[in-house]
From TrEMBL:
The lineage of its organism: Bacteria, Bacillati, Mycoplasmatota, Mollicutes, Entomoplasmatales. GO terms for molecular function: 3'-5' exonuclease activity; DNA binding; DNA-directed DNA polymerase activity. This is DNA polymerase III subunit alpha. Residues 23-186 form the Exonuclease domain. It comes from Spiroplasma sabaudiense Ar-1343. Transmembrane segments: none annotated. PANTHER family: DNA POLYMERASE III SUBUNIT EPSILON (PTHR30231).
Length: 186
């Protein structure tokens, strides 16, 4: 039996049955760095499935501090990109509504959930205890001989179209993540 496991509560979902995509949210974050204590979310991208089609959710977030040049070179998000965006305080409720009651699918979900939960705690929301699935962990387990398990590398391995110029943008990566998830679980 294939299953989704939330390591915090050991909740599982049987993946041998047909997947009801309306129960899932495929998400990715772009941040100003790797520390959920010091760095900030600057983009939330997600896909949900409703009325027989996927809906994109893209939220740019204006950080309190300038975006480091090194980060801008990776994700093409700079201070100009987010100058008219709202703060995380203004946007977090939207993020909560998108994620609520969904199975979270992410590549390196621990990273994304650390940032989401740090912000939830700081802003007075409950931490996310959703069921979740990590494509990175699954790939390492399922494909241990691959030299790399990054999203772009796995996309190429599974012959998922991948545009290097769009990578590291949250919504684009969520689309690739969705395709990767479907390839990995079937």
């Amino acid at each position: 039996m294939k299953s989704l496991i939330n390591t915090n509560s050991e909740k599982t979902i049987d993946l041998d049955r047909e997947i009801d995509l309306e129960r899932y949210v495929f998400l990715d974050l772009e941040t100003t760095g790797f520390s959920c204590e010091r760095d900030e979310i600057i983009e939330f991208g997600a896909l949900t499935f409703e009325d027989n089609h996927f809906i994109e959710h893209n939220i740019l977030i204006k950080p309190k501090s300038p975006i480091p040049l090194m980060i801008s070179k990776i994700n093409n998000i700079d201070d100009e990109t987010v100058k008219n965006a709202k703060s995380i305080e203004e946007e977090f409720e939207r993020i909560v509504k998108i994620i609520s009651n969904k199975v979270i699918v992410a590549h390196n979900k621990d990273f994304d959930l650390r940032f989401l939960n740090a912000n939830a705690k700081r802003l007075g929301y409950s931490e996310f205890d959703n069921l979740s699935y990590c494509t990175l962990k699954r790939a390492k387990k399922k494909l241990p001989r691959l030299k790399c398990h990054k999203l772009d590398f796995l996309a190429k391995h599974f012959k998922i179209p991948f545009d290097e110029t769009q990578s590291h943008r949250a919504t684009y990566d969520a689309w690739v993540l969705k395709e990767l998830f479907l390839k990995m679980v079937f």
